[in-house]
Amino acid sequence: MLDTTFSTSHKAEEYEQVSRRAKSPEDCGQVPRRAKSPEEYEQVPYRAQSPDAYRDKRFLVFGTGLSGIAAAELLIKNQIQLVLYDGKEDLDIPALRERYPVPIYAGTLPEEVLKEIDIAVLSPGVPTDLPLVNHMRELGIAIWGEIELAYVFSKGRVLAITGTNGKTTTTALLGEIMKATFSDVQVVGNIGVPYTGIADQTTRDTVTVAEISSFQLETIHSFRPQVSAILNITPDHLNRHHTLEDYIAVKERIAENQTGFDTCVLNYEDPILRSFGEGLPAKVVYFSSARWLGRGVSLFAGEIHYANAKIDTIVCTTDELQLIGKHNYENVMAAIAMAVSFGAPMEVIRRVVKNFRAVEHRIEYVTTKRGVRFYNDSKGTNPDAAIQAIRAMKWPTLLIGGGYDKDADYREWIEAFQGKVKKFVLLGATREKIAKTALDCGFPEEDILFADSMEEAVRKCYANAEPGDAVLLSPACASWGMFANYEERGRIFKDLVRELEE
Ligand code: UMA
């Protein structure tokens, strides 16, 4: 029987080892600890200023991708003046103007236009240190991001997730838990749905679950999630953030406006995040995949526990999950910690986490044919992501890798095979380079196969697989050159797999 609830007192020593928040809301005299209902939530000044404060401002929307267009539409709907700008010289201005009757500029932005602007809303992909953005600062223009605009113009409670890896899975899972608990739930942000696109539809009852990238955190000001999470921090996007320290500082901004009313969920096994939690005004809930925590969410002997001062509950075992791999267990634990902190019932959490399947293209189970399991990890576009996928495989694996050359080093990926890879089928521009690294790492030459197309790669894997094996597409490379994007690569793989004869 898994629904075991027992006292935590027998783990007192471990409990003492776990650093907790510096100040509890009770210490601060701030009660209630967390706003459980929309009514309680409204008593806390989450959104300090109403959108009305901005109705007479002139906005510049920088970027005409998903975020820029959604931001422009939100401002237009609210009858707020704006100028649309994109750095792309060959922007199709007439086509855009047909849909958006506002001034549109591409490439250069006249000084007299800039001088009229009060607030610039940057799309996430726009570096905040561009000369043009620096010039805007000199002119006294406020620099917002699309997330800040959405937050100011939306209503209801917000849960937000950041981290280097696992954001999308955690956001999607938490979104499902929230949908099973509340009637009005929006899942937005870096996951591919701009937050500004739904801001107008939100009410005080809306629960918004947002995946927030480091790019998006750079330009928040008042954004204050009631529950936040930082899953992990490893070097990434350093071309944009320049140093690891800056990247860490940006990630940590997700909690900068949180107080004792709010909760921040952190990975106890990430030393940066463990110490970050020690000084936070928000209530901190840790999760750990490596030890039993007296309080928080722990993976212990194959069981995921949630414990607070009074109870220790087994949420599920890892065998009951459809997701595989330690990193995925961490994503599940973070979602559990966030959901419990937000007041979702444990029975709902249990049901949803057990049924939740991987998001498309991330170690996504496709099907089993003749006893051979097929997994699509087309999103494994760099060696780090591909390492997680091969680590998650519990079976002898026929691995399809290779693609566009991003100048990556494949050694660590190949070292992570640890005897699991039976055949290594290589595609694309990087295939020779990867094969050479594999040979240098002692991978047997006869187990390296080249393929000229995905079809050939799938066929070669199937021909060499035995019942009980797995076939994994996890290329460690971008898809460009052979496919439009990783989504197309993954879908072609899945179609080919489904067509295989039983
Ligand atoms: N642009 C400029 N100047 C620049 C850079 C871009 O004018 O210096 C213009 C481009 O010409 C283009 C537009 O800005 O017209 C593109 O904006 P964008 O790059 O911000 O892309 P969007 O389509 O708005 O998508 C963004 C996120 N993109 C990035 O962060 C790069 C999407 O995340 C997100 O899903 C979407 O908003 C909705 O919120 C994608 C991503 O790659 C998936 N994220 C990175 C990641 O996950 O690693 C952070």
Describe this structure in words.
This protein has 20 helices and 21 strands. With 502 residues, it is α/β, with parallel strands linked by helices. It folds into three domains: 13-43 and 155-355, UDP-N-acetylmuramoyl-L-alanine:D-glutamate ligase (3-Layer(aba) Sandwich); 51-148, NAD(P)-binding Rossmann-like Domain (Rossmann fold), CATH 3.40.50; 364-499, Mur ligase, C-terminal domain (Protein-Tyrosine Phosphatase, Chain A). The chain has a ten-stranded mixed beta sheet, sandwiched between helices. A six-stranded mixed beta sheet has the order 16-17-21-18-19-20, with helices on both faces. It has a five-stranded parallel beta sheet with strand order 4-3-2-5-6, sandwiched between helices. The longest helix has 17 residues, at 326-342. The model is unreliable at 1-35 (pLDDT under 50). The structure holds uridine-5'-diphosphate-N-acetylmuramoyl-L-alanine. Uridine-5'-diphosphate-N-acetylmuramoyl-L-alanine is lined by residues 63-68, 86-88, 123-127, 130, 189-190, 192, 194, 213, 215. Residues 63-68, 86-88, 123-127, 130, 189-190, 192, 194, 213, 215 line the site of uridine-5'-diphosphate-N-acetylmuramoyl-L-alanine.
Which descriptors apply to this entry?
502 residues; alpha/beta; UDP-N-acetylmuramoyl-L-alanine:D-glutamate ligase; Protein-Tyrosine Phosphatase, Chain A; 10-stranded mixed beta sheet; 6-stranded mixed beta sheet; globular
